[in-house]
Amino acid sequence: MSHINARLAPVAKARIEPAIAFDAVRLDFGAKRIVDGLSFSVAPGEFACVVGPSGCGKTTLLRLVTGLLAPSQGEVRRLGVPVAGPSRDVAIVFQDYGRALLPWRTATGNIALALEAIGTPRRERAERIAALLDKVGLSGHGDKYPAQLSGGMQQRVQIARCLAQGPRILLMDEPFGALDALTRQVLQDEIAGLVRESGATALFVTHDLDEAIYLGDRVFALEANPGRLAEVIDVGLPRPRDQLQTREHPEFLRLRHVLFNHVQKTH
Amino acid sequence: MSRRHIDLLLSVLPAWLVPLGLLGGIEIAMRITAIQSDGLALPSQVAAALLAAIADGEIFLRTAETIGAIAVGVPIGGILGLLLGVWLGLSPRAAQLASLPVELFRPIPPVAIIPLMMLIYGLGIRMEAAIIAFACFWPMLLLTRDAVLGVEPRLIEVARMLGLSRRKQITKIAFPAAIPRIFTAVRLTLGIALIVAVTTEIAANPIGLGYAIISAGLSLRPEVMYAFLIWLAILGWLLNAGLIALHHRLFGAAYGEVAA
């Protein structure tokens, strides 16, 4: 048995391409080196978090995955294919929901934009939108304009719009950074559930170490000037996670120490 | 009168108290001092002249001529300016090519082309409409270009992430995002159009409200002149109030309120 397994294992492994792979990626803006020698991969269905000091290229890293930005050297691959530009398989939740939503469209209209883009037939849209609104807890708010919604609700609209395009990779750039602590916790639990349910691979950038450990299967810690990968930690905490129990778990506290010490060193 | 009508009247009344009181004061002061001047008229005489012009329909004929020239000139100049402005906003290459011609032609005062337009069209509504179109073209062009350039870059990123075609990026994102500012440009442009129309009529064109004013002045009838000036003020005010109301109605909920 064992020798069969040993022979089959590499073959099986080769077939499962990582959802996101960075291969010796370097990016320069003029004379400034933003990221250098960045290599890592994220497995399909994994929830990966990225932390690091400001200026370490966290947002740049996401933009490289979107294809809005191309590396100066090295290669970024999505689902085994080198990134050539934006793809409907990839959605991104921006931190500044106020600027990412179309102010002249209602919540429903904003979600509809994604359905229009992927070519969902008109008669199916209403039903899909209703389901998405329900999923993000915004039933009954579909007719409101972004300006009439709270920050947390606006961010929910943006999340629903991203889910509407059915992405296989969901990128999030400090999505809860502008929200109050309580709303943030509620949305953390919601996004964990939604990502798990959709089966998408998540890459979540945050400056909040606790948030990274709470949400992630793995946490990538970057260091700055230029941005490099400094440390990777595996988060073995049981799921579903709980705002009280998980945060009091000895393993949570241990990982928090590890990351905190690391960030202090590289700051 | 119902309670609501009385409330409405009471809420509007204070705004009119000052101008009406002022007119009354002027009437009394002028009668007491028996002041005489070719440039002055008693408010009561002005009111009588205004009523007479309304009664014999002259004021409506003159208004129709001025508004007619604006109604022809503004859409022509405005739409051309709008289209070119959108194009310059979207294409940095086009903006670069157009920058010198725009900066050369834009400073020409619209009234300076009155003689040229008289040569081409003679006198009448066509010549006036052409000057209005010229005057409206430039502000519309520049304000539309800036409105398009001012579209939130994050929205364009959202559109690119969704894989929208260039055409759909314009129709679904850039254009609707620019619309409130384009509407403001239309409002400003209509104000300019009214100024240019009346100026053209006073300087050269024997039609419209401007001609009525200069005729009254030349025949030494200041009360008629004042009557038409007051009419113009009311007209301009109605135009602006109507456009602001339309702006609120069209964009109020979605875009937030606009300042008057």
Written account of the structure:
The complex is a heterodimer of chains A (267) and B (260). Chain A has 267 residues and is of the alpha/beta class. Chain A has a domain at 101-166. Helices cover 42% and strands 23% of the residues of chain A. In chain A, the strands form two sheets. In chain A, strands 6-7-8-3-9-10 form a six-stranded mixed sheet, sandwiched between helices. In chain A, strands 2-1-4-5 form a four-stranded antiparallel sheet, with helices on one face. In chain A, strand 9 and strand 10 (228-234) form a beta hairpin. Chain B is an all-alpha fold. Chain B has two domains: 1-35; 41-255, Orthogonal Bundle (MetI-like fold). Chain B is 83% helix and 0% strand. Chain B is built from ten helices and no strands. The longest helix of chain B is centred in the last third of the chain and has 38 residues, at 166-203. Chain B is flat. Classes of the chains: A alpha/beta (267), B mainly alpha (260). Chain A binds chain B through residues 66, 68, 86-88, 90-92, 94, 96, 99-100, 102-105, 113-114, 116-118, 145, 147-148, 165, and chain B through 152, 154-155, 157-158, 160-164, 168, 172-173, 176-177, 179, 251, 253-256.
Compose a concise summary of this entry.
With 267 residues, chain A is an alpha/beta fold. Chain A has ten helices and ten strands.
* Relative helix content of chain A: 40-55%
Q: Strand count, sense and closure of the main sheet of chain B?
A: none
Give the H and E element order of chain B. Answer: HHHHHHHHHH
CATH topology value of the largest domain in chain B: MetI-like fold
**Counting H and I runs of at least 4 residues, what is the number of helices of chain B?**
10
Determine the N-to-C terminus distance of chain B: 31 Å
Taking pLDDT < 50 over at least 5 consecutive residues as the criterion, the unreliable ranges of chain A are: 1-13
Helical stretch count of chain A?
Answer: 10
> What is the strand content of chain A?
15-25%
Encode the helix/strand succession of chain A as letters. Answer: HEEEHEEEHHHHEHEHEEHH
Terminal residue distance of chain A: 50 Å
Major sheet summary line of chain A: 6 strands, mixed
- Give the count of structural domains of chain B: 2
CATH superfamily of the largest domain in chain B: MetI-like
Shape assignment of chain B: flat
How large is the radius of gyration of chain A? 19 Å
Number of strands of chain B: 0
* Overall pLDDT confidence of chain A: 91
- Shape summary of chain A: globular
